[in-house]
Design a protein that fits this description.
Belongs to the BCKDHA family. This protein is α/β, with parallel strands linked by helices. The protein is built from 16 helices and eight strands. Strand 5 and strand 6 form a beta hairpin. Helix 2 packs antiparallel against helix 12, helix 5 crosses helix 13 and helix 6 packs parallel to helix 7. It is globular and about 85 Å long. Bound molecules: thiamine diphosphate and magnesium ion.
Length: 438
């Protein structure tokens, strides 16, 4: 028997008299019911079933039994469909433009059009969006415009996202409440919890704006995912987490990314309202995200949506996915469940769409995108000195001054005599003379 020192014996007696060691055996910090057998659980549904997937339209665009079509009129349906078609139109052109060596990099959204456009449509235009990199459609929905898309991808003087200083698809727009994309995975997730909290504390926005954070199921394997969700649940904020589960993180299939019930299963672990939705069904995504957003605002708390889809395209232009998945699998998915075709069938069933409208739209979008591409291609890059401007606020730090001096020195020495540099300098406005002739 362990003999407690007399001070400890006094504490035990005091606990006992306050009922803390009584038959009821109350536990601190828990209202969990006491049971007499160990109960192991490995399901959040309470019934050992997988979390269900919410769907409105079946594969041929017909509402499934019991489904309620979300409030949508012909005008909104047209906007949804046009943006879902604009995405692949831009993707096809920009993918090929990269292949021709005219831009350095690109990422397509093939297969995720319904997830991206449906969710964008459910947000308010000034909800703050923190994306991963495959959410160009949110900007299109908000009217960023194809000229701005092209300018960013070309990194030319018209690039409003970052004066050509970011990789293609790393968009950003204060005007469109779209925070600049950064490549390191999952960094946007804890940042979103912070943005949500800032919104909550901002007079005038607290009750009407949310932070919407997109990420892939692969990014959800990062520690930042857990940090972000824990922060948003313990320091409550209207932060909407939208997991795009497209089946792959580059070459790693989602089956190797987690052993549990997807990303959705993690929400309840953080006390976060969660829903899983068919990401190929634009109406289901629209309805789920509308409701998720409503809950965010009503409760001032985070909500998690997991949208299930399939990444039809390669991960990026730096990837050849047929090295790790059969071409036939991709072709099958494209044939069996195309989110654009599914919504088109719904539109036709409402009398809102027909072959003629389809042809007109495709021709118009293609013409607009090609016109914009030609314009972007003809523009020069920003003046070279812009490389050093507005990187930091306030006075320019010594290290930037030093780097500018070094570049100027090198350009003076080699800029006009060494062919690769001469060619490169000719791509900048003023041929780099703004630095050379300082
Ligand atoms: C911290 C970090 N690790 C690795 C990478 C390289 N990387 C870029 S995208 C990617 C896959 C991400 O997959 P997922 O989150 O599912 O998004 P998806 O590309 O499928 O949309 C990886 C591993 C990175 N950018 N950052
Ligand atoms: Mg993925």
């Amino acid at each position: 028997m362990i003999r407690l020192p007399s001070v400890s014996r006094g504490i035990v007696r005091r606990w006992a008299t306050r009922g803390l060691t009584t038959a009821a055996g109350n536990l601190p910090n828990s209202k969990s019911p006491i049971v007499s057998k160990p109960k192991f659980i490995n399901s959040v549904t309470g019934s050992d079933e997988l979390i269900p997937t919410f769907r409105v339209l079946d594969g041929v665009g017909k509402p499934i039994e019991g489904a309620e079509v979300p409030e949508i009129d012909e005008k909104l349906a047209h906007k949804l469909y046009e943006n879902m078609q604009l995405l692949p139109t831009l993707d096809n052109v920009l993918y090929n433009v990269q292949r021709q060596g005219k831009i350095s990099f690109y990422m397509t959204s093939h297969g995720e059009e319904a997830t991206i456009i449906g969710s964008a449509a459910a947000l308010a235009p000034d909800d703050e969006v923190l994306g991963q990199y495959r959410e160009m459609g949110v900007l299109l929905w908000r009217g960023f415009g194809i000229d701005n898309i092209m300018a960013q991808c070309f990194g030319n003087e018209a690039d409003t996202s970052g004066k050509g200083r970011q990789m293609p698809v790393h968009f950003g727009s204060t005007e469109h409440h779209f925070h600049t994309i950064s490549s390191p995975l999952a960094t946007q997730i804890p940042q979103a919890a912070g943005v949500g909290y800032a919104l909550k504390r901002t007079p005038g926005r607290g009750s009407r704006s949310i932070a919407a954070c997109y990420f892939g199921e692969g990014a959800a394997s990062e520690g930042d995912f857990h940090a972000g969700l824990l922060l948003a649940s313990t320091v409550p904020s209207p932060t909407l987490f939208i997991a795009r589960n497209n089946g792959f993180a580059i070459s790693t299939p989602s089956t190797e990314q987690y052993y549990g019930d997807g990303i959705a299963a993690r929400g309840p672990g953080y006390g976060i309202d969660t829903v899983r939705v068919d990401g190929n069904d634009v109406l289901a995504v629209l309805a789920a995200v509308r409701e998720a957003r409503r809950r965010c605002l009503e409760q001032g708390r985070a909500v998690l949506v997991e949208a299930m889809s399939y990444r039809v395209g390669h991960h990026s232009t730096s990837d050849d996915s047929f090295a790790y998945r059969p071409r036939s699998e991709v072709e099958d998915r494209k044939r069996v469940d195309n989110p654009i075709a599914r919504f088109r069938l719904f539109m036709e069933s409402q009398g809102w769409w027909n072959n003629e409208a389809e042809e007109d739209l495709k021709a118009r979008l293609k013409a607009d995108v090609m016109k914009s591409f030609k314009k972007a291609e003809s523009l020069k890059r920003c003046e070279l000195k812009e490389l050093f401007t507005d990187v930091y606020g306030g006075e320019e730090p010594w290290n930037l001054k030093e780097q500018r001096e070094e570049l100027t020195g090198l350009l003076r020495k080699y800029g006009e005599v060494w062919e690769p540099w001469r060619t490169e300098l000719a791509r900048f406005k003023n041929n780099g003379q703004d630095l050379l002739k300082r």
